[in-house]
């Protein structure tokens, strides 16, 4: 089971929007039932990543990450979304 951490400033608003889009991406790429998404604030992200495969955040990556990081901003703006999707799929495939 892949663990994906979705983080934003508070762990509620933008991470929820991005979580829905990431879940759709994963379901469309044969990951349905093979992942779980955990939402948190960016201040909790490094701790949540200790056993995670990936962090997707709508803020700057925090220091001390032990998992892969992909910016979630493209899921909000649409700019660079295809590249972010590719990065997520590559991080989970590895």
UniProtKB/TrEMBL annotation:
Under the heading SUPFAM superfamilies, the entry gives: PTS system IIB component-like
| Gene3D superfamilies in the record | 3.40.50.2300
InterPro entries in the cross-refs: PTS_EIIB-like_sf, PTS_EIIB_2/3
Q: Which domain of life is it from?
A: Bacteria
Q: Which residues form the Phosphotransferase system EIIB component type 2/3 domain?
A: 3-59
Task: Report any Pfam family annotated for this entry.
Answer: PTS_IIB
Q: Which CDD domains match?
A: PTS_IIB_galactitol (cd05566)
What is the protein name stated in its UniProt record? PTS sugar transporter subunit IIB
* Organism of derivation: Collinsella ureilytica
